[in-house]
Fold this protein.
Amino acid sequence: MSLPLQDLCRVAPEIVLCAFAMLVMLLAPIVPRARHGILSTISVLGAGIALAATRFPAMYPGAAYSGLFRADAFSLFVHWIVCGAAFLVILGSTSYLQREDLDAGEFCALILLATAGMGIMAGAQELLTAFIGLEMSSIASYILASYKRDAPRSNEAGMKYFLLGSFATAFFLYGIALFFGASGSTRLDMMTPLANDSARTLLKMGLGFIFVGLAFKVAAAPFHLWAPDVYEGAPAPVTALLSTGPKAATFALALRILADVGAASPLWFWALWVAAVLSMFAGNLAALVQTSLKRMLAYSSVAHAGYILVALATAAATDHAEAGIAAALFYLVGYALVQLGAFLIVAQLGGPGERHVEIEDFAGVARRQPAMAACLSLFLLSLLGLPVTVGFLGKFYVFNAALESNLIWLAILLGLNSVIAAYYYLRVIVAMYMLREPEQEIAAEPVPWTLSLVLWIASMGTVYIGLFPARVIGFAAKAALNMR
Amino acid sequence: MVPISYYLALSAVLFGLGVVAFIFKRNIITIFMAIELMLNAVNLAFVAFSRALGQLQGQVFVFFVIVVAAAEAAVGLAIIIVIARNRGTLNVERVDSLKH
Amino acid sequence: MMPAEYFLAHIWMIPLFPLAGAALMLLIGRRLPNRAVSAVCVGSVFLSMCFAFGAIWQLIARPAADRLVSFNLFDWVPAGAMHTNAGNLMDLHVPWGVLMDPLTAVMLLVVTGVGFLIHVYSIGYMGHEGGYYRFFGYMNLFMFSMLTLVLANNLLLLFVGWEGVGLCSYLLIGFYFLRKSASDAGKKAFIVNRIGDAGFLLGLFLMLGTLGTIQFTELGPAITAGHFEFGNGTLTAIALLLFVGATGKSAQLPLYVWLPDAMEGPTPVSALIHAATMVTAGVYMIARTNAVFSMAPRALEVVAVVGCVTSLFAATMGLVQNDIKRVLAYSTVSQLGYMFLACGVGAYTAGVFHLMAHAFFKALLFLGSGSVIHSLSGEQDMRKMGALWTKVPTTARTFVVASIAIAGIPPLAGFFSKDAILGHAFEHSPVLWLLGFITAGMTAFYMFRLVNMTFFGKSRVDHEVEHHIHESPSAMTVPLTILAALSVVGGWVGWPESLGGSDRFAQFLAPVMAQHGEETAAAASSINSMEYLLMALSVAIAAGGIWLAYRLYIQRPEMPEKIAASSGFLYRLLYRKYYMDEIYDAMFVNRTKDLALTLGAFDRNVIDGLGVDGSGWLTRFTSRVSMWWDSWIVDGLVNLAARVVWILSYPVRMLQTGRVSRYALFMLIGVLIFLGYYLRSSGFTLQNLLH
């Protein structure tokens, strides 16, 4: 048995996040509405401290709470992604909340709680713990998606997310029950030999249902149908969070199951393969014909889930899963940076009420808001996978991992999809730089410094990691090795 | 003693009924009830397994599931109320402005 | 006091000057006066040139066997452990590193030297244009990318430069972005190049997997160590994939279509990017990876045939164009074909030699045409020119020098390089030689058709333009003069042994193409008399082409139209460029557009219908099926691919009805299929579970 103090250290980031969430919620009624900016500040601080608090689990790696939770390089890496995403989203949404006249306290607290849930998923070594983490992040996300109480589209997004999310959760939970029935435990790292054939069948069904729950959460086809609607309807900063943090945490959980449960790899391999291919095509083909930038990015995020699933399929296919896991982790970092930045720009340029999110509204943005146009172009180019951006290297590692595992077809389809995707990403850039501005004047709002800071971080990160990926990929590889 | 397979079959049937109700019912509240039915089917499975395996763990899980379901219910009902207020309908078919 | 070999140790700095210039321009260039812009941008290229020339000097000062400098600046892509196709575990690290050897030296000479001259020229040419800083910023960015490409010591870094020059090409073609044709041409270049790049990347990955390295200096040893037999299938595949990349960038069949349209960019851009440097990157890449190509004779066959056919094909199109820059564009495609022909017959040295010579005279031709266009207030149609010889004397004289050089009249540069290629082609296959030989005649003809229509004969210039005609400023004429001098003497470094020279150029490059140099040396001595005959023949056909152009366009100017009228179909075919653009539009471009339109139509018609009324949908679906059938028969096989994608994308959007229940239904179907598959495969029955 380890000391409880060490156990506390291993969940330090979650403790910090929850403590700050509660603090913000307590302060919210006391602080006058006009000064809600201070709540955002505290929340940003909270996310930052949580990021710093990952130092503790790094110092005391190992299992905590009788093996329910595990602090290792892998969970640390995912913690960085989710805490970093929360940090950037809270910072980037302060001006948005003011503009839309939304309550900052609950918003930030919910983001912090959701992030704590994601952190738990990242470190969970037991399925019910993972379930609690998943629900923490999901329930907070349901509220966030419908956060604009008076906007029917936001309500609708919340409702769809809630109903379909609960539906998928039920499958996930049923899977856990069957898993429990088959193995007599919900611990991932303590699989006992199975008694007989019917237990094996139960385990297979259980893993199948668990896969469904996870695939829903990462918006992988054919379980992606909710994503475009929810991403489009939710407030843009929420979409920024939804399309990054929970995905990273869920992929982390999936990778953990793949690594720990021996039966999962052969069972999941084809499912991952098919889901990857379907997601890539479903996302890219649908994105080709979108007129709304926000919805286009939503479909593109489905396609990117497909790219990451390629890495997962790679991890499931071979004995050398490290390359696939490292590629997935690296891809998640790059994807999170870029996707966050893009949605926050959409939030800003959309104007009050996010009325201007059609692609044609972005015509001439380069003249009105050159810096924003440059950032958005950079992010889109990274999503497209052009060299010197992190997106290129992400795709490169995934592609390489797939080739290495002899998944030639998957690699070819990945390449083909990158080509399809080029069309709709470039369309936006062309609109921004080459088309004339629309007839009715869209006022160029000044960019608040908080958002500028976030965009600076995101774009610098995109280019810096794109040029010098050594440390990130190095750590991802270490995390991947650590899981074995 | 009733064999475990009976419980499991019941659980599967309940779960299936929940799924079917989710898909075919139009009222959002009914759909929500369908989800509760599915979660309770899971609870039944947990308890059945727990008894068959002679472990208490599974019964503890049920409490967790109930708590989470309650939290979901709170949030879900709030969202449903907002929908009802803004749109004046609870027919899920009519809430389809986001599509394609 | 500089330490010994200072420049060689600092070659990595060469691309940095233009990068700094580009960064400065794109950040604060808008606020700078034009004079400061030119000082920074031309100055940065000048510094690069000084460093490059210093490095080349110091490289030549070394003994011939020791002319190789390669070092890594930092670890760029530390990918870690990977398996090669042979199953060995290797530690993959791609460094950011530079390589300097004779081949790099030649490219550096061309890129920085010609690049500098064109930058100087641009000061004059772009002086009256808006977006001055943007132009120079992009040009400097281009120089950075091109120098990165040339100096890279591994294929991945070369690819970075490769993409960078592609980007700059796109930006500069679309420089006049308010003109729709210009932005369309930019897009076309970008998209066509992407097709080639896909091949390049696949080749790169395959090389990495097969040889375990993409460092240029390690390719040869890796092939030796891997015991690949001559003509190994995997190596052939690598070579072919890389060649696909080269056809995109260097405008070879079937991906050449973007280059003629690229003439929408400003003329200095055409000269620098689309004639002298970027488009030769494909040739450079093949010469660089010659270790692989030399092991793949089948791939070399393909390279030679594609190069040869392209050169003939483009030359025929050049015969009838009336836009002065388009003639030069087709000429460029044709000359690039020569370079590939050279590579394809294994004469990499000759290919690189022609690359260098071509850079001199083709840059001169483009700059000269720019000067003509400039003096005629923007007129590009040769039918509205004529008799400019006395009005723009410097331009005209230098232009004629370049034309003689490209036609292949000794002792100008083009003669030596083209002759070297044709000589090697003959050794390889007389058919290839014959095609190249015919092309040489056509080259002489269309170049002198251009010269005659522009500078001689009767003036057909519009009246209001006529009295504005003026010689260009000295910023433009001085580079022209220098390039003219280079076009004359540039070929002398490769004076062949058969004419009493020593072919220093081939000797200089020999270490890079080691295995090959010996073969040709042996072959060359054996067929000496043949060589004289070939030389005489090519000079003769060049002279013939020039004479024919003189007859047709000076002595009997009414003849060409009669010929055009009498051979109507052939003329139209050539004039409309074999309808290649139309064919590509019909086969690929419009199919893609159809796909998007059909998806949209589908959206409105079928998807909305499906949710409401299944039977109505079914009726419409069947009618739609029969409609497809009709149009499928009518439109033929061309539509097939588009239809397949259309059908594939159909479920994607069909599902997105916006209705929660339907989403849940499809999720359930997904679950059932997934579970069904696994339970079936594990022999599951209900009985099995219940007991």
Observations:
- The mean pLDDT of chain B is 90.
- The longest helix of chain B spans residues 57-87.
- Chain B has one domain: 4-91.
